[in-house]
Amino acid sequence: xxxxxxxxxxxxxxxxxxxxxxxxxxxxxxxxxxxxxxxxxxxxxxxxxxxxxxxxxxxxxxxxxxxxxxxxxxxxxxxxxxxxxxxxxxxxxxxxxxxxxxxxxxxxxxxxxxxxxxxxxxxxxxxxxxxxxxxxxxxxxxxxxxxxxxxxxxxxxxxxxxxxxxxxxxxxxxxxxxxxxxxxxxxxxxxxxxxxxxxxxxxxxxxxxxxxxxxxxxxxxxxxxxxxxxxxxxxxxxxxxxxxxxxxxxxxxxxxxxxxxxxxxxxxxxxxxxxxxxxxxxxxxxxxxxxxxxxxxxxxxxxxxxxxxxxxxxxxxxxxxxxxxxxxxxxxxxxxxxxxxxxxxxxxxxxxxxxxxxxxxxxxxxxxxxxxxxxxxxxxxxxxxxxxxxxx
Length: 392
Prior knowledge:
The chain has helices spanning 29-39, 48-51, 110-117, 123-129, 134-150, 174-182, 191-206, 236-245, 278-281, 347-370, 375-390, and strands spanning 2-6, 13-19, 56-60, 62-63, 66-67, 72-77, 154-162, 165-166, 213-220, 250-255, 274-275, 288-289, 298-299, 302-303, 308-314, 325-327, 334-336. By secondary structure, it is of the alpha+beta class. It has a single domain (2-390), classed as Chorismate synthase, AroC fold (4-Layer Sandwich). The chain has a 5-stranded antiparallel β-sheet.
């Protein structure tokens, strides 16, 4: 499965084309819009979330609620487009209708993108590099989630830190954590930490600054053997890291213990292996078990049957209402950077995007492993593989 996206932050719409989906997968606008709505939630969001009420249109590849096996086209329209008709017009006759943006923002793609493409108007860069692009990726991720669900795989996540305020790790099963997060404005499972996060966001907004944080994605029901150890670009942990790092403002990725593994001896890092045939009667996929999950469900670039646990670190958004120092690329004079409409904290939204890109990579790995042109064929291939694992 592969996909591409197109569109600008203030253009008419964002578009995605997905190729490689099997026939027979159920897709509805409601399942896409549910994830788009989650992306727009969260304490600390800006005014644009009051303007946009994102919904996805399905333009191809689906008939009567099920995929055909042909490319699927998704569109998320920008409701603010009417205010940008001439400023973002594709027509040459509208050139000059908007003042050029010449003051790049530190921490954004503005300056290096302008230098790379030879633009003297930074808007030609910031429109595409904006995190607004993640809206249509969340729609693609909703389709991928549908495929995971159809193959008995569940995905969710929680916010674990904002601006240095860390939530206490939860001992609840992951589905209960997801339910708690869904009831939280911070998508967090620790009510005390959530209050501290909100207070910090309020203070940060008042002084015109921004905050980042850490999100954790968890996946249940993955069979062992997705991904591969034989080539660098087939390792699933590498592909997941690339997908997460492709999200705007993500600066670090951890799997399992992550960086903590570097601080411990091997005896406190590697997960021991046990064999318990009774697990098969309990609905588990194999008789093998690991009492701990420090590896985060991945060993040697492959899933090992344990829950997948990945975390991503988001830097503070670079658009500050108290701007940092910059240089005007037209005059080379020092100026305060330009201010675009922005959020104080978008960490909860980053969790939804992280879930989406993880779902997309897992869908790709499942299709790579089990193949098939229809969902029924993929299920048969998966069931045959799992039957062999039970006797391993």
